[in-house]
Specification:
Blueprint lengths: L1 H21 L5 H9 L23 E15 L2 E15 L4 E13 L7 E14 L6 E17 L3 E21 L2 E14 L2 E15 L1
Antiparallel strand pairs: 1-2, 1-8, 2-3, 3-4, 4-5, 5-6, 6-7, 7-8
Length: 210
């Protein structure tokens, strides 16, 4: 009887030990495995585009400014004009745009004629910018249109309209992404009064992107 009691006590001890193991915390190696697993690499955030990059420029560009023009042998008259110009450009991609331009000038022919000379150019064509991530952006353009001349001294002395075309370029200095100062110079060809003329012009203005 005594041996039987000892056997029962031993069996109970083994059962209690097994139950304690069943309710114990998960073994440490599993936790260590999770801790040692390499973390997924973090992708670097994309770098912001430079402040003056072409993608930061709006597709529309409006220009307003002063224009100095020299005209040679227009109906026997050579003279200088001071004027105002306006242009609008619609970019079709980062570097190519379609430009429209209107410039009006006013001046006086030299003595002895001293005629008041008024001119207007209206035309359009291609505008190409050299894309740069900096403040300075060079550009070139080629425009074709009409040039109108009117000479007056009291009554109208003469009015002529003919072909006009512009080939030239310059640079925009960006004060901020939407505003720049423009400098430009052009060859201005005209054909009026059955003759060809080689003229030139230069100007400065302000550019607005919108």
């Amino acid at each position: 009887m005594r041996k039987f009691a000892l056997l029962c006590a031993a069996i109970l001890c083994v059962c209690f030990a097994a139950s304690a193991q069943d309710f114990a915390a998960p073994p440490a190696p599993a936790a260590a495995t999770l801790a040692s697993a390499p973390a997924a690499p973090l992708e670097p955030a994309p770098a912001p585009a430079p402040l003056f990059a072409a993608p930061n420029r709006s597709p529309w560009q409006l220009g307003l400014g002063y224009q100095f023009s020299h005209f040679d042998n227009i109906g026997g008259q050579s003279f200088n004009n001071n004027g105002l110009g306006a242009s609008i450009t619609r970019y079709v991609n980062d570097w190519l745009g379609i430009e429209g331009d209107v410039t009006a000038g006013f001046g006086t022919t030299p003595a002895p004629s001293n005629f008041v000379a008024k001119t207007v150019f209206a035309g359009g064509g291609a505008h190409m910018a050299m894309v740069r991530d900096s403040r300075l952006e060079p550009w070139i353009h080629a425009l074709v249109g009409v040039e109108h001349f009117r000479f007056t001294q009291g009554p109208v002395l003469g009015s002529n309209t003919g072909l006009g075309y512009v080939l030239g370029g310059g640079a925009d200095y960006k004060l901020m992404p939407r505003i720049a100062i423009r400098f430009g110079a052009d060859f201005l060809g005209t054909r009026v009064i059955s003759a060809n003329q080689a003229n030139y012009q230069a100007g400065v203005g302000v550019i607005f992107n919108f």
